[in-house]
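Is this the right way to post C-alpha cells for a design question? Let me know if I should format differently. Anyway, here goes:
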C-alpha cells in the first residue's frame, strides 16, 4: 500500500478542512479521530474518492506513513494534547515529527518541545489562522519548535498556506520551542482588539447617529475600499445586509453576549508578565466579560436613567472621523502587540522576524489586511524598531488622525457610549508621548508607606533613595525590585 505524506489527528472543522487542503495539493493524507463515527462520516462523505486514508487506530495511522513520519494534531488544547503525545511516543521512531496545530498555550509548547526532543523525536507547535475557509483554501501558518523539524515539514505546510500578491507564502519558520504559538497568541489578541474596535464603531453609528443596518452596511463597504481594507471590515459589511426570515436584520436578533476561547486572556497575562502595556487588547477581553453579564446589565439599565441621544452634528463628517479614529486605534493595537513580541523574544531568546510575521498575517488569517504591508515595510526599513509609532509612516499618519480620534472619544463619553478599546488606545498614545507622567508621586507614595525607595531627577539612573517622610520612621529601606 502507498504510504501517506502526512497524518491528521482530529477531524473537527479545522482538521477536516486541512486534510482536504493537503490532498488538493497532491499529498496523500491519513486521518484519524477518537470518535469512530466521525471517521466513518468523513470517509463516506468529503473524503470519498480522494487520496485520503481514514484509519481506525493510532497504530494504523502511524503504520500508514512514510518516514520520517509527520503527524499533525488539530485537537483541543491542554490535557488532550499531552495525552495524545503519550499515546504516540511508543509508536514512533527517532526523527519523526509531531505537530500541534491547535491554539496551545506557548508555555505548554516550550515544555512539550523539550520533552518530545528528549525522546529522540521532533516537535512543532504552530499557529493556524483562517477559520474553516482558510483551512480549506489556504491559512496563515506560524510554525515554531524543533529547528531540525522545519526542513521536513516546510514543503507540506507552505504548500497549503495562503500566499500574497507577490507569491510569498504566509508560512515561515518563527523560532524555537514556543515561538510559533506565542506569535499566534498575539495574533489572536490583536484579532480581539480589531473586532472590539469595529463593534465600538458599529455601536456609535447605531446609538448616536441612529443608522440602520443597511446604512451601516454601506459605511463598512466603503471603508473596505480605504486604508481599513481587511477581512474583518469586509465580513462586517456582509453581516449587516443579511436579513432574518421576516426581513429584520439578523444581527439585531443576536444576543449581545460574547464568547471567548482564552487566547486573548493569555495575551493579556503574557503582557503583564513581560511588563508591556497591552491596554487595547486587555479592554477588548474585558468587554467580552462585561457582555456576558447580560442579566445584570439589563437590571442596571433599569436603575440608572438614560438620556435620549440627539446628534446635532454633521453625520457624514462624524462617520469620516470614526473611520480615522478606527484606523488610529488599529495602529495602537498592532504597536502594542509588536512591542509584546519584541519583549518576549528577549525573554525566551527567540530571533523573531517582525516583518516576516506581518507578511504571514497578510493572507489567509482572520486579521489579514492591506495595513499589514505597511508594518512589513516599517520593519524592513528598521529591524530594530522599538515601537511601530516611531516609524516615519505611522508617526505621520497617527498625527493626522488625532483630531478625529479625540472628537470620536469625546462624543462617546458625552453620550454615555462605552468604547473601552478606542478610548484606552488614545490614553496609551497620550501616555507614550508624554515626557513626564505622575509616577513621581506614585513612587513617593510607595516610599512613604513601604520604604520602597525612588530615583531622583538630579542623580544618575540606578541610584535609589529613601526619605523619612513623617520624621517618625527609620532610615531602613526596602529592597528595590520590579516584578
Amino acid at each position: 500500500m502507498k504510504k501517506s505524506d502526512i497524518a491528521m489527528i482530529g477531524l473537527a472543522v479545522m482538521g477536516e478542512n486541512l486534510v482536504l487542503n493537503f490532498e488538493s495539493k497532491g499529498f496523500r493524507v491519513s486521518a484519524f479521530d477518537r470518535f469512530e463515527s466521525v471517521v466513518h462520516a468523513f470517509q463516506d462523505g468529503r473524503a470519498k474518492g480522494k487520496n485520503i486514508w481514514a484509519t481506525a487506530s493510532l497504530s494504523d495511522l502511524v503504520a500508514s506513513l512514510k518516514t520520517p513520519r509527520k503527524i499533525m494534531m488539530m485537537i483541543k488544547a491542554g490535557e488532550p494534547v499531552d495525552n495524545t503525545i503519550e499515546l504516540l511516543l511508543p509508536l514512533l521512531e527517532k526523527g519523526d515529527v509531531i505537530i500541534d496545530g491547535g491554539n496551545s498555550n506557548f508555555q505548554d509548547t516550550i515544555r512539550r518541545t523539550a520533552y518530545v526532543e528528549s525522546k529522540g523525536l521532533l516537535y512543532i507547535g504552530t499557529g493556524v489562522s483562517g477559520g474553516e475557509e482558510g483551512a480549506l483554501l489556504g491559512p496563515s501558518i506560524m510554525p515554531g519548535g524543533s529547528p531540525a523539524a522545519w526542513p521536513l515539514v516546510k514543503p507540506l505546510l507552505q504548500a497549503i498556506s495562503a500566499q500574497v500578491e507577490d507569491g510569498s507564502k504566509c508560512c515561515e519558520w518563527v523560532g524555537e520551542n514556543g515561538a510559533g504559538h506565542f506569535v499566534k497568541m498575539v495574533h489572536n489578541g490583536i484579532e480581539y482588539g480589531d473586532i472590539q474596535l469595529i463593534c465600538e464603531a458599529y455601536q456609535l453609528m447605531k446609538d448616536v447617529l441612529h443608522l440602520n443596518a443597511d446604512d451601516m452596511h454601506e459605511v463598512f463597504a466603503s471603508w473596505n475600499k480605504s486604508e481599513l481594507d481587511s477581512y474583518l471590515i469586509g465580513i462586517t459589511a456582509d453581516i449587516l445586509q443579511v436579513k432574518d426570515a421576516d426581513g429584520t436584520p439578523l444581527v439585531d436578533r443576536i444576543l449581545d453576549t460574547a464568547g471567548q476561547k482564552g487566547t486573548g486572556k493569555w495575551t493579556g497575562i503574557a503582557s503583564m508578565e513581560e511588563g508591556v502595556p497591552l491596554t487595547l487588547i486587555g479592554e477588548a477581553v474585558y468587554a467580552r466579560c462585561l457582555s456576558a453579564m447580560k442579566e445584570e446589565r439589563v437590571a442596571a439599565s433599569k436603575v440608572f436613567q438614560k438620556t435620549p441621544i440627539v446628534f446635532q452634528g454633521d453625520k457624514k463628517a462624524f462617520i469620516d472621523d470614526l473611520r480615522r479614529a478606527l484606523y488610529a486605534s488599529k495602529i495602537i493595537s498592532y504597536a502594542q502587540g509588536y512591542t509584546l513580541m519584541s519583549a518576549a523574544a528577549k525573554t525566551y531568546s527567540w530571533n523573531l522576524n517582525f516583518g516576516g510575521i506581518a507578511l504571514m498575517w497578510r493572507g489567509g488569517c482572520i486579521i489579514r489586511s492591506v495595513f499589514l504591508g505597511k508594518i512589513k515595510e516599517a520593519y524592513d526599513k528598521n529591524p530594530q524598531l522599538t515601537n511601530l509609532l516611531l516609524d516615519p509612516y505611522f508617526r505621520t499618519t497617527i498625527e493626522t488622525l488625532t483630531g478625529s480620534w479625540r472628537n470620536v472619544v469625546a462624543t462617546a463619553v458625552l453620550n454615555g457610549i462605552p468604547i473601552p478599546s478606542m478610548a484606552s488606545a488614545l490614553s496609551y498614545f497620550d501616555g507614550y508621548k508624554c515626557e513626564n507622567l505622575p509616577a513621581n508621586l506614585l513612587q513617593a507614595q510607595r516610599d512613604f508607606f513601604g520604604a520602597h525607595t525612588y530615583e531622583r531627577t538630579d542623580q544618575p539612573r540606578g541610584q535609589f533613595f529613601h526619605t523619612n517622610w513623617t520624621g517618625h520612621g527609620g532610615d531602613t529601606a526596602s529592597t528595590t525590585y520590579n516584578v
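Format looks fine. Someone answered above. Worth noting: The two ends are 58 Å apart (CA to CA). DSSP finds 19 helices and eight strands in the chain.
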